[in-house]
Structure formats: C-alpha cells, structure tokens
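Anyone? Bumping this.
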Amino acid sequence: MTLELNQMTRQVQEMAEALAARLRQMDARLEELRALLHEHAQPDEALRAKVRQARALGWIGAEPGGEPLDLAHPAPPLPSRISIIAADGSQIHPDRHAAALYYVINVGAILYRRGSGAAPEVFVQPALHFEEDEDETGTDDQPFLVAEVDARRDLEELKLLAEKAEAERAALGGDLDAPIVALADGPLMLLRTLYEATRQEQRQQVSRHAQQLARLQAAHVPVAGYIDRPGSALVTRLLRLAQLDKPAEALESHELRARDRNDPPDRLLFRFLKPGERSALFYNTSRINDDYEGVGQRIAFFYMNVGGEEGGQIGRVEVPAWVAADPAKIGLIQAALYDQSQVTGGYPYVLARAHELAVITAPERAKLDEMVNIALLGQGLAARLSHKAQLKILSSGSRRRYGR
Amino acid sequence: MSEEPKEVGRVLRASTAGFVLGVRVLQPELPTFGALVKVRTQTATEILGLIYDVLVDDDPFVRQLLAARELREEEVLDQRRNRQVPAEVSVLAVGFRRNGVLRHLLPPQPPAALDRAFLCDDGEVKEFTARTDYFRLVLQAQGMPADELLAASLREGARVRGGGETFLIEAGRELARLLAADPVRLDGILRRLRA
C-alpha cells in the first residue's frame, strides 16, 4: 500500500490548527518569561540555592554563568586575519540485513583563512568499521547501538578539529597571538548520543571527548559547537524554577520534572537579541556535564543571533569552560560565527561546507554496497542480502496498482 | 603500464542516438566540448560519442550565496576549486565497437542508466578519426551545434597527430564531397577548422 494522502487531509488540517493555537498561547507565556528574565537578571542567593537543590534532585536546566541573565552583548569586530576551522561528520549506520555488517564514519573539515585571499583547504576522512563476529554483537534490532556509532562520529569530528588546529598553530610558527577558532556542527557535549549508555560508558566517552578539547586548549584555539534552530528549553526551566514560590529546601523532584506544554524553547525567549548579539553564559546542569567538569572541560552555552532573514536566526553555542572564562576567546567565537553567517544568510558558511564535505549521499552508499559485494565475492563469500532486504528493494521501486 | 581511463560520469538517460551523463566534478575538470567518450555496456559493446553540451546544473548552495551578499575572494575560490559542481554532459553517439571491430554507425542498443563513461585516450581518438564515416552522423544531427562539433572533433584528431596537416586536408576533401550542394555550410566548417 502507498500512503493514502487523501485520507490525511483532515489530520494535516487538525495539526495546523493545533499548532497555531499553541503558538498563540506560547506568545502570552513568552511575555511572562521575558519579564522573569529581567526580574532575575542578577540571580539572588535564593535562586542560586534553588539551582543547587534542583541539581541535587536531578533537575536539568540552565545554571547562570555569572553574567546578567538578560545580557545582550554585541559581537566584537573580527580580526582582519583569522583562521577558522570547521568540521562535521556523517555516518552509514550498520544494517544487519545488508551483505556485511559494517558502518562508516565520514568526517569533513575546512580551513578558511579569512583575509588571506586564498582558497580554503578542505579535508575528508572516511573510515569503514566492521565486526568480525556479528553473532556476538548487539541485539536482534540493532547490531551495534546507533548511539555508539553517533558518539564515535562526534569524537572523530572533534579529533579532526584538534588535529587541524594544532597543524594550523604550527603553520603560523606557534604564534599564540595569531587568532584561530574551531567550530563543530551540533552540541559539544555528548548529551544525546550518551542517553542510553551506562554511567561507566558515559564517563569513558566523555573522557575521550575531553582529551580532544584539551588538545585544542593546549593549542590556544577556542572551540565551539553551533546548534542551529535549537529546541531545548534550559533557560526557560531556570525561569520556571525561579517562579516556584517556595524555598529551595522545600523543592520536590516531581514539580521539577513537570513541564508546561506552553513553555517555549529558549530560542524564542532570546528573540530580543539583535543580529550579532549573544546572551549571557549558562551551564547545563546535566550529570554528563558533571563528568566533563570532572576532567576539567565543563561545557557552557549561550544563545546568539547570527543574523539572516526575519530579524536573524537564534542559535545555541556550546563552549568549554576555559573559553567561557576568557572574554577574548568568547569574542572570537562570537565574531567568527556572526561573520560566517553573513555569507549564507543565517548559518555559518564553514559549517555548511563541512557538512557538504562529510555528507554521504544515497548514490554513494549504493556504490559502497556494490564495492563491499564485489570484495566479498572476491574472497569467495556469497554477498547475500537478508530476505527482508531483498523484498524491500523489490517493493520500493515504482509502485503500480492493478484494480483496487 | 597504461594509464587508468578517466571517468566522465554515469549515464542518466539514453537513446541509440545519444545519451546524457550525470557528473559531479571540480570546475576545472569539467569535460570539454568535442571530446570523444566511450561507454562499456553490459552487452560487451563499447559505444563511442562526442560531447556536444556541458550544462552546469542548478546548485542550491550557490543560489543561496548569491542571494546573501557580495562574496569574498576566499569563498569564490572555495566554490570554484574545492566544490564539485553538478553537471549534465550530453553526448552524440557516433560509433560502437564490438568484438574488436570499430564501426561508425549508431549503436544497436543504447547504454543502460548508470553505465560508466570514460574519456578516450589519444590512441583511441587517433583510431576513431582515422576514418571519416562518422561525419554524416554529425552533420545530420539535429538540435545541436553540429558544425562546431565536427570541427572540434577534427581539431582533436589533428592534435593527437601532432598538428595533422595531412589529416585535416583529407578531412576537408571528404567534407567537400559531402557538402558539395551546400558551399556556405562547407565554408563555415573549414573556417572553424582553421580557428
């Protein structure tokens, strides 16, 4: 059967109406939240105590980073010459129905020497990984955990960034005054990819990740992860906490977990930022961030308007604490993101290019499958898809229907 | 050891009269007008054709850049030197080889979608242009700059012969015979050969 679009018309209409109604309710809530942001611009001891208590109860939200909560800090000018390095990664997840059990991680990077007048340098690093004994890996549904592959991809991205940052610092004669920034696509903190991992696995992954952040720190290269159209509501949760009319010691975990469906994502809260401006710094109170802190790489974040249409796009920027603690480094990140986003109208050019270098297209995947099949046949192995995979290929072509 | 043939692209669509290749290459590596290409089909036939059009396809990234603001030199160079451009290469079929025999005729079957096309090397160009039977196929082709294409092919044939004055004179004689009733067209092609 195909998707009967005519049967979905009513459902699509209902969804549009529901979303419009929610947006109207959200607008009213936004006004209330912005008023709270100004009211608590200088967090008092009562709010700080609430945050401490909430953290102890497992609350995930934004901890103020020491700046006024309603800060709108303009971007400083970008140095006339600066090296901007960006990296992104993509993957082919393992497919137990394929002829062989493997996965691929492809990372791409670009080194853009702004002000040099020279063509940027681009790099691509593909790597194929496989398990020799597939019967002993994973579950029926997932031969490897998808999140593990994603975590490995994130690590490879950061490794490539660190490698290129060290090489660029060396190419500049080790001059620490020569500005270099490193940008990754997506969060710096491995929060999403570690969601299903055990605590021990989380700490191990964070430790590997933090080693790469430490390389960047040693090379004096500020690094940031840029999240386009972020959906999190960490600052909104902080304001909800501030709004709770009770002392810190009376907080209960069930009320901290309660969610108001009208609470908007933070990016709507920070729509007041003008192009180039950034918000105050915050810290994510996630337990995983405690692991980063344990290895000296706690992750901070801020929101910024990178410019573009309709008043500009609000993105979230994650940086390690050693970047957050240095106004000059934060300024470089902010200026570079703003400058790069002017090229493409709301998203950093170098990240768009890194994505383009890393992305694995469907025809490329098909070609790789073909290469794998030929290699297997060359070794006298039958390159057979699972029966289900064969049927899927047969049924996903042009569909024809004869009669009803 | 002979050099690996250079891949131009893969067949997007085809007929016995010609085919279109889908290509993603760097701008300086775009194939050239008049170049001879070959496609090995699954029926052990090698189809030969002349490139008569190279179309750089719409690129949403470039479109976005143009809409944003004036580009900096670094970005222009990045787009030109580092990015693969999507292109379509149109080819006129002018011959085929089967069982080692080269014929200047339309192939019996078109290539299949996704068949790979390669640039012919100098030896293959020399062999193909040694005879003039394909002139008719080019001169009769519709919807393309046929005269320009034939002239480009002959200039290529002369290049692989290190100048090829005798080759060009022989080709001119054959053209004079084929276009005896159309001296204006003949003159146009001969002028293009000298260009």
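Late reply, but here is one note on the structure posted above: Chain B touches chain A through 17 residues (CB under 8 Å).
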